[in-house]
Amino acid sequence: MKAGGTGVPVAPAFNLVFGERQPSRMMRFILRRTLQMIPTLLVVVLIIFVIFSVVPGSFISSLMSEGRNATNADVMAHLNQQFGLDKPLLVRLWDYLWGLAHFDLGISYRTREPVWNVIEPRLWPSIKLALAAMFFAALVGIPLGFVAALKPGSVIDTGTMMVAISGLSLPEFWFGLLLMYVFALQLGWLPSFGYNADSFQHLILPAIALGVSPMALLARTTRAGVLDVMNADFVRTARAKGVSEPRLVRSHVARNVLVLVLTTLGLQVGSLMGQAIVIEKLFSWPGIGSLLVDSVAARDIPVVQGAVIVIVLWFLVINMLVDVAYAAVDPRIKVT
Amino acid sequence: MRLRFNLVLGLTLALLVIVCALGAGWIAPYDPVLHADLMNSEMPPSWEHPMGTDGQGRDVFSRVLYGAQVSLTVGLVSQLINSFIGTALGVSAGYFGGWWDDLVNGLTNVMLAIPSLVFALAIMAVLGPGLPSLLIALGLTNWSWTCRIARSSTLSLKNQGFVQAAVSAGFGDFNIMRTQILPNILGPVLVMATLGIGSAVLAEAALSFLGVGIRPPQPSWGNMLTDARELLRAAPWAAIYPGLAIFITVLGFNLLGDGMRDLLDPHMRTRKV
């Protein structure tokens, strides 16, 4: 094992995952990709900050519209001062960024707790839903794409592609409503909405509703990937050598398609947290998405900002991990 | 064969929706908002009400027809804005290169990192509900793929003979972009726009469903589903038909976009996939 030029000690676990190919270069790759996320995140924060600083109705005015009578000018001035809303915009932006650099997301207008305390309990339900949806998508989508590609032009192929394009066109919250109607209201097999940390029953319907469009995408990607590999020279050679069809599929095709499929899978997991907002709202799922919708309605800007940052960060981190895994698995990709 | 099938089915469905939207005033048997017959609420589909009535006794069929107007307006107008922004940024970035290219690239990456629905939700929160806000929110948040495609096509066109000839003939930059590059990238941009109409229709429905899009009583497929959710057990048809309308519309434009892409891509035309 060569430790590369920098002399950084390399943990054995790292080698288990990434093999013994120049670990220090891989480390630098990861570090660079991590640093690359910072400007993107900064611009996201800036955009969200600017958007909400021009909001005509402030949180204070939404308090009044809820019937809590805060019309008293003194009360309003006090509230404005308490949340720092009386300071100039640039000062507020600087304060926010300064806090962010110290992992401080500010104070929620609504609950007056630190924003992180509001977001943190929502994280696990959201991640759980995204992973469960992906599990469903992979379980159905990958075999579907595979079967379709093995007999291109057949009835199964045409049917699969119709399912795939339908899945991509389906409004997922409507599909969720239909699932709710059939499996919860009519058959009574599953709870129609809500969350239970200990049981999987509540997870099934929202996960399927959320998983339909990634399932369709996976089916399409897998099919395209398998078709590509099936036409490759090494498969023709193997077939000419007399390798049996099941073995051909298993050891020549499946392995080569795996990289493509895993990439699609990973990228989908990254964007699912953002896509889940409507499903979370529909099923009263206590995740980041429903928190975001509720906070937008209440104009609880610090929480909105925090939730958007979490969603974007999740996307960026998963993307980076996919890139790293890709580079580690496929030696043709240069790690520089 | 498959190629024509996609195009024909897509075009048929899209035309069907367009006819429904344009002809809503003539086809709809009842007023979508004012005709609220509370004595006949939650009625199952019948000859008088082909799609049943909702919780306030309004005709679901009429409301679905009028909902098509909202969805199509949002889909077409927002995609027009997106295509314009994406093409302008992408072509200029690819053509000029340098710091402008870096800036546009960076902005595109940021736009891709924020899920467009989340971004649109934030903009809707600022602008307030309603059709104009929807057009702006969805028109500003879905141009990144168009921009990428316009940029990469421009990059490959820039070094080709006819563009170089225009440069040496002394054409201005804007002129070259307009007369030499734009006509050549119109195909892929059009495909992206068609596919984008589908996602804009979905996004409008989602935003209206969340209560920040089109406000009731004006019918939109999204807010009809919000109402229907409450009476799912008593009147499932009030949920089934608006959703079906969204599905058919989005499917139509997706098939149309797919078919157009296959038609434009000579590589795809010969390969039997």
Automatic annotation (TrEMBL), chain B:
Residues 68-257 form the ABC transmembrane type-1 domain. Coiled coil: none annotated. It is found in: Cell membrane. The keyword tRNA-binding does not apply. Signal peptide: none annotated. InterPro entries: BP-dependent_transpt_permease, MetI-like, MetI-like_sf. It holds the Pfam family BPD_transp_1. The chain crosses the membrane at residues 112-140, 189-214, 234-256. Its main location: membrane. Keywords: Cell membrane, Membrane, Transmembrane, Transmembrane helix, Transport. GO terms for biological process: transmembrane transport. It is a multi-pass membrane protein. One of its GO terms (cellular component) is plasma membrane. CDD domains: TM_PBP2. Belongs to the binding-protein-dependent transport system permease family. This is ABC transporter permease.
